[in-house]
Amino acid sequence: MSTLVIEKFINGQSNVTINIPFFVVRAAKKLMPTTVLSALADKGIDLSAIIQANKSHQIYSSTLRVKEHGVEKVIVVSLQ
């Protein structure tokens, strides 16, 4: 079973890792309003692309750079 993994890095070191079962990703896409899905895709988290990558057994990874409480962080979203 595939898993969506979200990792947060601070100063190059892993700070938090979240593993989301793939059925939750599919359910979230069905339940979220189109505006939310579009906003996520604009930020680099495209649930449609993630689901398509899973169906076609392709690799999916997206990296976001964010500033949280004045601290630069890197978020990596990947399909495993």
How would you characterize this protein structure?
The chain is α+β, with helices and mostly antiparallel strands. The protein is built from three helices and four strands, in the order E-E-H-H-H-E-E. It has a four-stranded antiparallel sheet. A hairpin with a 2-residue loop joins strand 3 and strand 4. The longest helix has 10 residues. It is globular, with a radius of gyration of 13 Å.
Features:
80 residues; 3 helices; four-stranded antiparallel beta sheet
Can you describe this structure in just a few lines?
This protein is α+β, with helices and mostly antiparallel strands and 80 residues long. It has helices at 22-31, 34-43, 47-55; strands at 3-10, 13-21, 61-68, 71-79.
Shape descriptor: globular
Radius of gyration (Å): 13 Å
Low-confidence stretches: none
Structural class: alpha+beta
Record the strand order, biggest sheet: 2-1-4-3
Distance between the termini: 9 Å
* Strand coverage percent: 35-45%
Helix content: 25-40%
Task: Specify the number of helices.
Answer: 3
Helix and strand succession? EEHHHEE
Average of pLDDT: 93
Annotation, overall tally of beta strands: 4
Largest sheet entry: 4 strands, antiparallel
